[in-house]
Amino acid sequence: MTDKERLETFRRCGRALFWGGLNDSHSGNLSVRVKDSLWITRTGCMLHELVAKDLVEVAGDPPPRPELRASREFPAHRALYRAGGYAAVVHCHPPLALAWAMVADDLVSLTVDARTALGPRVPVLEAAVAHGEALAGMLAKAMAGHRAVLVRGHGVFAVGDDLEQATWRAFQVERTAQLTVAARGLGADLAGLAAKPYLAASE
Ligand SMILES: [Zn+2]
């Protein structure tokens, strides 16, 4: 993939996350792993207005040089790559998923789309320090066997084989929260719905 193609993929996903309501003007960060390097968005950038200088490459193990201004969630991204076989990580702040994570310890897939994208459930992680280096190790452990994790009071981390897949999974987290709140308001039996055979059949 050329630098230009990589930037275009980041731009496409960053725009989708912003216009889809999963981020505010300056929240969220994206990364991809390329061999021993990690390409990640710059701290403080606007994901829907990315330009070439907003993508920084961090190679190898040392902490990124401060002048690179890599996202402050760089430790979380790196911990996820070290722990799993992922090639991309999306982090965003979707409002209804965050609200749901304030009252529940997981988010259960209730549709075929969600089950396909996320598997049966997305765990909610609560950490005393919910960002940066302090979060990284806990997040990587919580992600084991899952495709996304909701960090209470902060946001969602979604992993994937590429940036588009991780973006889709982040969208499915927010969609599932929206549907869950709506279905519960309509009096649905959420546990009964989660056990429907059409969900297991969609994996
Ligand atoms: Zn964040």
Description:
It is a single chain. The chain has 203 residues and is α+β, with helices and mostly antiparallel strands. The protein has one domain: Class II aldolase/adducin N-terminal domain (L-fuculose-1-phosphate Aldolase, 3-Layer(aba) Sandwich). It has 8 helices and 8 strands. The chain has helices at residues 3-19, 74-83, 95-101, 112-118, 132-143, 163-185, 190-194, 197-200; strands at 29-34, 37-41, 55-59, 88-92, 106-108, 121-125, 148-151, 155-160. Strands 3-2-1-4-8-7-6-5 form an 8-stranded mixed sheet, sandwiched between helices. The longest helix has 23 residues, at 163-185. The two termini are 30 Å apart. The mean pLDDT is 95. The structure holds zinc ion. Zinc ion is lined by residues 27, 73, 91, 93, 154-155.
Helix content: 40-55%
**Low-pLDDT sequence parts:** none
The biggest beta sheet is recorded as: 8 strands, mixed
Between the first and last Cα atoms, what is the distance in angstroms? 30 Å
Keywords:
alpha+beta; L-fuculose-1-phosphate Aldolase; 8 strands; 42% helix; 203 residues; binds zinc ion; 8 helices; eight-stranded mixed beta sheet
